[in-house]
Amino acid sequence: MFSLVILIAFLIYGGINYWIGRWVWLGMFEYLPNAKAWRKYYWLLFSVIAFSYILGQAFQKYIPANLNRMIAYIGAYWLGAMFYLVLILLLLEILRIVNKFINFIPQTLLGKPTFNFALSFIIFFSLTCILAYGTWNAQNPRVHHYDLKINKPAGNIKTLHAVMISDIHLGTINQENTLVGLINRVNALHPDVILFAGDVFDENVEVFVQQKMAIPFQSLKAPYGTYAVLGNHEYIGGHAEEAVHYLDEAGIHVLRDQTVEIANSINLVGRDDLSGARFNGIKRADLQSLLKNADRQLPILVLDHQPSHLEEAEKEGVDLQLSGHTHHGQLWPAQWVTQCIFEKDWGLLQKGTYNLIVSDGYGTWGPPIRLGNHPEIVDLQLQFQP
Question: Whole-structure pTM over 0.90, yes or no?
């Protein structure tokens, strides 16, 4: 069954790329001198680019690191280009159909029956601008500040300054320079506690070891400690146990269905990711059992990678849940999809005493670009009842 799904996905992906490749050929190369002689080389090069991300992921253990990163970048940018080319080409097809009835656009502009060179140039220029801005945007994170009041006393702690980061996706594309920039920004905020809400790693943990990324992590400074939970990508890559080991080595306390008390004043619950059961066959613990021995008079903070099944947290009296996972779609207009899947795919949701904050993440998955959202660090100032 799984093989059938993979085959269907491969055929769909191949079909989409053939459609794009055909339009690129017709629009930009068909009428060049000796075009027919170059056609087979065009399709060979196009196929290598279109499947480079998949090939890089499949054979990364057998390819030198620098070459693998170059292949990953080419493939990742192609995924972004492919996404927007599909949207552009679909829009053109819709305009062609509408134009048959209304005839409000000259056919020469629409490129009937094939693209014309001018239209192809406009599309290429627009796509270049999209990818360039998306790259710049992805490399310029912002600090998103929240002030929240929690209607519970927290012992001797009147206020708590917490910083939350999710979805760094350290690996082939997001490497040491990404991490060092993050660490410097977090330490500049002088938080009391630092919380990582999953997907610290992409599917690849080898880069973390090779570039000794534990060292930058060890420079994090927070008097109440640094905590993390696993996300779906630690499980997808099959390196969940290694991820826990390396994070522990870096001085980060990984909570896997565990509850700890911060300064004997605040309950911090770290939930294992929902996807874990699909990979290790172990269903994660429910919140009720995780809070069985907790002092519920104290504030309850939950770290849960995916903002799903919110009714459970609300029912169990959770005061604040911190999540990530959604990337807020990462590539506009994909947030229209995430907004349909999740009750809250980014920002603050409040239901009575229950608060949820969903970060759109710090890094990227696949294309190293962001449109329609910004990479962020979540800066929280929590005020507790006296």
Answer: yes
